[in-house]
Amino acid sequence: MLDYVLKSMKEMCNIPMILFPGNSFQLSYKADGLLFLSLISGRNADLLIGKHVITAPFLKVSPLEIISTGYMLIDGGIMTSVQYMSNTNPIPANKEDIALCTAVAGEMLGLKQIYMDAGSGAKSYF
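User: That's the sequence. What structure does it adopt?
Assistant: Structure tokens below.
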């Protein structure tokens, strides 16, 4: 299904299609690139590196541009789906120093992008 949607979109426009995968099943060679997300704000080892190990062989031989991305979950006032599904605590919205240090650590680890999110349905967006 994802292949079909991406193929259809490419027929209608010529902007790059970058995947934001929620899991290892949301991968397609029909895209142009992929945000290789590491949930650096959490302490869930599976989302820091575990899932990456599973998808690495697929991505190594893929034509996709791999964009190493630090995913930082910021508190949005209520428990969101990403917080529940990832089993992680978000960075408190009023703790800019923690967010900054987390982003700098991600940069030092070689991450090329930082994606900050409060999650779907958040009451506030920092």
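The longest strand covers residues 65-73.
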